[in-house]
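Please, structure for the following, as tokens.
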Amino acid sequence: MESESSSLVLPWHWVIEALAGFKEISVYTLQALIDDSPLTHHDFSETTKDLIALKCLEELYPSSSSSSSSSSSSTLEELDSSLSSLDVLNQILHQVTQTFMFSN
């Protein structure tokens, strides 16, 4: 028999995973929903974590033909295409953190 807490967590997980797949839902909206939910990082499946990471990447690197895309494309070219969205996001955040630390 399911515990009361696990029966409350599952619907939150379904909703967050479903909304993460919609391009109309911003990272900020998704983050607010996650913050208000009873879920922790460990409650999310790898699929959900990857969808959320992909959402973050899409907002960091929008697919537009703007002039700023050339500077961001050099960073993206250095990334391993076999990595998951979560791994790519972690790699970018690591690079940004190192750049910030060395520039100060």
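The two ends are 55 Å apart (CA to CA). The chain has one domain: 4-103.
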